[in-house]
């Protein structure tokens, strides 16, 4: 299976970031790590292995990058204000640096990208589609955590964080941005077992639904937990359906 790794310094997030790719053709998918995970976390926990048949058939190419935004949150780097700003900066790093790199690699400067991720990676996957529907068209958000404010020692979100969180900015969307977003889709798959919180998915679904943004909450029930075993089952099943009939 083809594997390519790149690394560059980004002034937007103030550090060097790794970006990796698996596969050689097909629909590009940006797979966001959990919490503070690095670009190769998804391979270590065997998500790439279970996606192997789709990769080898040329249906998809998977990209991942270090979760700089999630890392600042998970390890409580800097002040709460700094961490909230980094969520916004991380999204802009993806929009202005990672997406152009993906399009160059795909040799198609207008290709739209799907996003995917679990836990806090699910937050980023959904947020990127909502913020940038001009470049992202679908999100698979698994076992998502969308109200990140409950993890930070601050009473109120900053403007930076409001710009980064769909729970805050989606209710205020309008015009061409909203029109385009209404042609996109956010799929929230979650278990209801240990450490899962399906209410997080319903809260985001209610915000999206109020603005007529296509979305779907899929419950896998109480036997599926907040764990890599769940996500290894979810991702190939759902992405496989999305790629049915697609030429490799």
Structural write-up:
- It is a single chain.
- By secondary structure, the chain is α/β, with parallel strands linked by helices.
- It has a single domain, classed as 3-Layer(aba) Sandwich (Rossmann fold).
- A hairpin with a 4-residue loop joins strand 1 and strand 2.
- It has eleven helices and eight strands.
- Strands 1-2-4-3-5-6-7-8 form an eight-stranded mixed sheet, with helices on both faces.
- Helix 4 runs antiparallel to helix 5.
- The chain is globular, with a radius of gyration of 17 Å.
- Helices cover 42% and strands 21% of the residues.
- Count of discrete structural domains: 1
Radius of gyration: 17 Å
Question: Low-confidence spans: pLDDT under 50, at least 5 residues?
Answer: none
How many strands appear in the DSSP assignment? 8
Identify the strand order in the major beta sheet: 1-2-4-3-5-6-7-8
Largest sheet: 8 strands, mixed
State the CATH superfamily name: Alpha/Beta hydrolase fold, catalytic domain
